[in-house]
Amino acid sequence: MKSSSSSQRLPRIKVSYLTSKVTKEHLMEIFSAYGCIKGIEMLPPSTETKGYLNKNHLRYQSASIDFETKSEAINAVRYMNGGMIDYHEILVELKLNKSQTDKMRKSKK
After folding, report:
1. DSSP strand E in 19-90: where?
2. pLDDT digits (tens, 9 = 90+) for 34-91
3. Cβ contacts of 85 within 8 Å, gap of 6 or more
4. Which pTM value belongs to this model?
């Protein structure tokens, strides 16, 4: 049986429109300024960017970054969304877990 703390997902952000030159180490260095990073996962090109090449003919990639607290994740989004990494503007979004998404859907009804 899982404890309630292990079943809760860490606060996560998604960073999109990263060039292929950006590594986990780069992201750790940049985003650790906003809090304690628990994990970084580089993601393959998503459907909205798959096959899309930027003006320098580089494929964009994305990453998920897990923070220790929600306030750290929110600060990273606040300060980095629209920022520049490797001379390219990035998109940074807070990713909601399933229970948060369900609550939002119910509140809209």
Report:
1. 37-43, 61-67, 84-85, 88-89
2. 999 999 999 877 555 555 555 655 678 899 999 999 999 999 999 999 999 999 999 9
3. 15, 18, 19, 22, 26, 30
4. 0.75
Q: Is 72 helix (H, G, I), strand (E, B) or coil?
A: helix
Q: What is the DSSP letter of 80?
A: H
Burial class (CB in 10 A: 0-12, 13-18, 19+), 82: exposed
d(CA 33, CA 45): 26
pLDDT tier for residue 96 given thresholds of 50, 70 and 90: confident
CA-based nearest residue to 65, from 18, 91, 17, 31: 31
Dihedral sign for Cα 49, 50, 53, 57, please.
Answer: positive
Radius of gyration of the chain (CA): 15
Residue 25 backbone class (left: φ over 0; alpha: ψ -120 to 50; beta: rest)? alpha
